[in-house]
Amino acid sequence: MSIEKLEYFYMIARYNSISKASTELYISISSLSSALKSLENELGYALFIRNGKKLVLSEDGERILPCVKRIIEEANKINIPLYQKIAQPSIKVGVSDSALIFEADRHHCLDETFNLQFINAAPLELLTQLKEKQIDLVITNCLVEDPALERSSLIQLTPLVAMHSSFLHHGKEISPVSLEKLPFIVLTDHIGHHILTKRVVEYLDIKPDYLFCHDSLGINKWLNEKKGVFIIRSIEKDLFLNKEIKFISLSKALGIDYYLYKNKSNSQMLKIDESERYLKNLFTKKGNK
Known about the structure:
Layout: H1 3-15, H2 18-25, H3 29-43, E1 48-51, E2 54-57, H4 59-77, H5 84-87, E3 90-95, H6 98-106, E4 115-120, H7 123-131, E5 137-140, E6 149-157, E7 159-164, H8 176-180, E8 184-187, H9 191-204, E9 210-213, H10 219-224, E10 229-233, E11 245-249, E12 256-263, H11 272-288
Helix pairs in contact: 1-2, 1-3, 1-4
Protein name: HTH lysR-type domain-containing protein
Pfam family, one: LysR_substrate
GO molecular function, one term: DNA-binding transcription factor activity
């Protein structure tokens, strides 16, 4: 029995698919199938059962997967050559909010034993991909109860009002009445920003005028020109470098909770737990600022 065959088994188990594993390992499907059959013959039992078009770990396959994971980890420690996709896996993280991707990309991950690859898409699409093992983790504010998924809290983002300092009373505060007199700048093609602005306006019970900006790069310019105010999430504060732009905190009742989801059957996959800890540490620090 070779370490190579165990690597093949591990990658098939990761994706529940010989086809996907062959793509990741750059090995033909026929070669991978033959290697899996050879390993099963050596062990004396089947490692997978077919469920429609998918492969699912058999009871014996589930039993030995943690052992295979440990063998691969130990092999890596003593520099036994492994496939790159196993020795330094790319962990695919689906994120429904592009602002969180931007924030994560600003911080270089010091752990060189894995890479994080961020994918932006709609929440339900990402969660479906997570269940099908097409991606490894999902960050979203969508609250879903699914027995196949494990959910944990990641960060709460509180909305802020960004505005020119000249709008503030004594440079510190502004009342809802005064805020209503100022135009609210809204990103034209950003549905998420429309929803966020609407939530704030309804909470404050005001009816302001709106200015629609077609380019996110123009927001700084409009704020500096005192054209109106702009609702942001707390994580986006660092994008506004002009010292004349000030930020007014809003009620925590308007906070948006984001969650980290993982597929429960992926608990034995290499570097999933390490990636989860890294992301939680990163966004916990950001949320505490």
